Amino acid sequence: MALQRPASLTDAFLDKLVSRVPSTSGGSWKLTEVYTGDLLVELPQSTPEDVAAAYATAREVQKEWAARPLRERLAVFERAHALFIDKAQTTTDLIQAESGKNRRMAIEETCDPVMVMSHYLKRAPKLLKPVKRGGPVPLLSTSTEIRLPKGIIGIIAPWNFPFATGISDSISALMAGNGIVLKPDNKTALSPLYGVQLLEEAGLPRGLFQVVCGEGPDVGPALIDHANYVMFTGSTATGRVIGERAGRNLIGCCLELGGKNPMIVLEDANLDEVVQGAMFGAFGNTGQICMHIERMYLPASRYDEIRSRLVAATEALTLGASYDFGPDVGSLVSPDHMERVKSHVEDAVAKGATVLTGGRARPDLGPAFFEPTILEGVTKDMVAGVTETFGPVVALHKYSTVDEAVALANDTDYGLNASVWGGDVDAACAVGRRIESGNVNVNDILATAFASKGTPSGGVKQSGVGARHGDQGLLKYTDVQNLAVLKKQVMGARPGQDYDKYVKGMLSGLKLMRKTRLR
Length: 519
Description:
Layout: H1 11-18, E1 28-32, E2 39-44, H2 48-67, H3 70-86, H4 88-99, H5 103-128, E3 131-134, E4 141-149, E5 152-156, H6 162-175, E6 179-183, H7 190-201, E7 209-211, H8 216-225, E8 229-233, H9 236-248, E9 252-256, E10 261-265, H10 271-283, E11 293-299, H11 303-315, H12 335-350, E12 354-357, E13 373-376, H13 383-386, E14 393-399, H14 402-410, E15 417-421, H15 425-432, E16 439-442, H16 447-450, E17 464-465, H17 472-475, E18 478-486, H18 499-516
Parallel strand pairs: 5-6, 5-8, 6-7, 8-9, 10-11, 10-15, 11-14, 13-14, 15-16
Antiparallel strand pairs: 1-2, 3-4, 4-18, 9-17, 12-13
């Protein structure tokens, strides 16, 4: 039976979404339904000149937006919070059509911007409020920390979570008074375009949030060169290029990059929970989650038992194309990416690894389907042993001691996410603190860390610079102005005063300040 596309995705609806993308070249990109390969819409492609014009438009609108009282800006997101929830099913349809993920992952993706809004609606008033402090001369001077918007934020969003990253990363920046120029991946531009439409329906000024489309080499340099700050989620290789260009332009950037994330199972772990968590960790979003697990370290004393249970659970997963909640695992994002995942498995097998289950493309289901795969015997001379596969592929490894497990987990250039499972939570936390990773989940894979919006989430080593979420996730989009006031001219020798006496008095004053803690 042919796959029935959701009724919400009419040609008129999709055409309206892409009509906001500036394009003077007349070029377009064929945006397809991943499940079938059928054309969804012709996506306009922007030129560097279009990018410059988008920034110019956003800057004009941003002046008025930044001048609004904070309570008025936040009121937009109060309305957007409800609107995003009301329209979640339509957003889910778009996410599935453009990315191929199963419906569970798509609906969960729609929740992320709502959670981010909820957090910063509570936190932004305190973070953006001026903070008055004492100055160098007690009682006679003050210094006030004032948070100012940077201007226009350039955001480059990836294809694996286009709505969550494209919209969520923009929310705190907009609350702080900035404008946005977003470049989504061509493959997954529809859901972020819809997110912008919803924000405007909630009252965001038209033109403040611009969306440009095009291949990275074509429009990426212009996007960075016109920005006041850049937020990027993607590969480490591309992150280096963006960081270098941002540095030349003397602007800041936040980079969430690649990972080769480990999972350590301790001897006293609850295996029912381990297996359930591992299925999501390895195969959630078809393995296309920045924080998903690609390496599992299992205790030698329980290795055979855990391996058997993981294989059985994997083989029980259902794989398919559907706009309902039936399949456990969906498609990869494109045939090209499927071939990349397949090549990692083939390279591992050619060099001695064993496929315990899976390992095959499934063209009978769609052009980009690949079976959930468990490998054994993966080593560092294999591509899958050191490079992020970013697909439904996980390698099992045996360890004898906890020290060995920690050393193996840290034996990577990356440090984005890690997972530790154990019955003794304190002991598991102690292991987690030894792992070189920006996020560590105990008895969970990734959701507990990423959904904790009050705590910064980012990578270490080659997995990134900076963080989203937490106070840092908003303050990074601001500049600090130090407004200092001196009420009486007392900083310096008085006319005619002997300078030696002035210095003596000054040093005595410093001692007094220390004793009295005056500031």
